[in-house]
Amino acid sequence: MNLERSGAPPPDSRPRRDGFWWLLLGAALVSRAVWVLWVHPPQGHAFSDMAHYLHRARELAANGPAVHPGPGTRDLVWQPWGTHTLLALPLFLFGDGGLGLTVAALIWGLCSAATVILSHALARAALPATRLGPWPARIVGLLALAWIPHLDHAGYFVSEAPFTCALLATVLGLVAVDARLRRSEPPLGSVLGAGLAGAAAFALRPESAILVVFACLVLAYRHRQLRVVAALLAPLLVVALASAARVQLHAGRPGIAENAAVNRSAGRCHAVVIWAVPDEATRAAIEAARERDGPDAYEAYRHLGRRVSLPGFRALARRGDAHPLALRPALAEELVFVGHIGDPEPHRALRRRCWAATGVLGQARYALTHLALLTAIARPWPESADHPSPWQLPLALLGRRAALVVHLLAALGLLLVILPRRRESPVERSDDFPRIVCALALLSLAIVAVAFFGSPRLRAPYDPYALILAVWAVPAARQRLRS
Question: What residues contact 440, with CB distance under 8 A and at least 6 apart?
Answer without folding.
Answer: 211, 214, 215, 218
